[in-house]
Amino acid sequence: MRVALTGATGFIGSHVLTELQEHGHEVTALVRDDAQADVVAARGAAPTVVDLYDRPAVVSVLSATDGAIHTASPGDATSADLDSAAADAAIEAFAGSGKPYIHISGTWAYGDNTSISEQSPFNAPAFVAWREPIERRLLDATDMRGVVIVASVAYGDGAGGMPGLLLGSPRDDAGNLIMLGTGQQHWSTVHVADLADFFRRALEDESARGYYVIGNGLNSTVAELTEAAAAAAGAPGAVPGSDDEARGRLGEYFAEVLLLDQGTDAAKARAELGWSPSRAGLVDEFRTGSYSKVAAG
Question: Which fold has domain 2-155+188-216+265-273?
């Protein structure tokens, strides 16, 4: 397939690019400048420098493809506008075509819930409350095949924002990492390569539609994750913090999502598309995998 991909130089998008290429797809990477164009071209993608807010230009690019995947996210206050622009361009470009548009989302929109499924009610904190209206709009476009991939915290290859946050946790006087809150909350996680594998499956399988919640089912506590991060960072251990400390460190809105107690087993993805995560969990990655190697280096 000829596939348009946003975010191809990002953590998740770069792994999606690799996954698509390894399975014979031709990728057109929508990038914002010549420097990013050089990066994706070196990896074998066809770069197109375009402003994602320029709907006519994006529609023109998408219309020449067989499907599109959106993973780009600035991770700031402009995220909502960018997601909205990408979704609306896809709706216009793919109207009446039945072509697939795969849109990234995240589990934080479900609030506190240790058994998140596609039937779970949304209970979004303010940090991500903008997601659901955009996703509903694209899924209501019945003349294209809309898929929203609700990703858990992504990790792997010694990178990723949330693993980096844990590795960079402040330390107490004894050098221990300070956990986010008490550390008793669970995080749903997924290795970025396993996540990329699901993006490809959703693209290729014409039966894939609607929401898919993606997580590896391990659902470790933040205490377990921070203790493992301490091993990777060469710290003696990890100690509980407090909700107030987390809010003071990260701000009210960001701390609120990191203090959520969440889990999922991704039953729909496993049953419908045969998805089966195979990579090591984040605890093991911290202790003996890619993060321990980064810290040692």
Answer: Rossmann fold (3.40.50)
Integer Cα distance of 20 and 102 in angstroms: 13
d(CA 81, CA 53) in angstroms, rounded, equals 8
Each residue of 147-188: pLDDT tens digit? 999 999 999 999 999 999 999 999 999 999 999 999 999 999
Q: Give the residue extent of every domain in the chain.
A: 2-155+188-216+265-273, 161-185+219-262+279-292
DSSP string, 239-291: E---HHHHHHHH-HHHHHHHT--B----HHHHHHH-----SPPHHHHHHHSHH
Contact at 8 Å (CB) between 97 and 143? yes
- Please write the tens of the pLDDT for every residue from 85-116: 999 999 999 989 999 999 999 999 999 999 99
Residues 248-281 have pLDDT tens digits of 999 999 999 999 999 999 999 999 999 999 999 9
Q: Torsion angle of alpha carbons 226, 229, 233, 237, nearest 10°? A: 40
